[in-house]
Amino acid sequence: MILPFCKRINGKSYMKLSTYLLFDGSCKPVMEYYAPVLIGELNIYLVGESRMTDMFPELMHHLVVNSTIASVNLKLSASDFLRTSEKLVQSNKLSLYIHGGSAKDIKMCTTAL
Known about the structure:
This protein is 19% helix and 33% strand.
């Protein structure tokens, strides 16, 4: 079975798979390293530069609230783990998002996965 993650030829459904990574304080250097490797445009937003500044102690202002590396064929998103009341563990460092396409196609993909 071929999962419809790619654009269909007849123009019916266009689905994309996006990846979101969580880091424990190392998001900025990792994304800066991979942007030229993946030949993508890098955007990084720090806690201290965001509207959320007042929600976090100053010692967290250097952390990444959101970052992306984007190109025609790729979008990789990441941030530092900002939930101070929870612990970052191996099982919650990666999220995959299927978006676009019809509800039927998305359900078929998620059921198969």
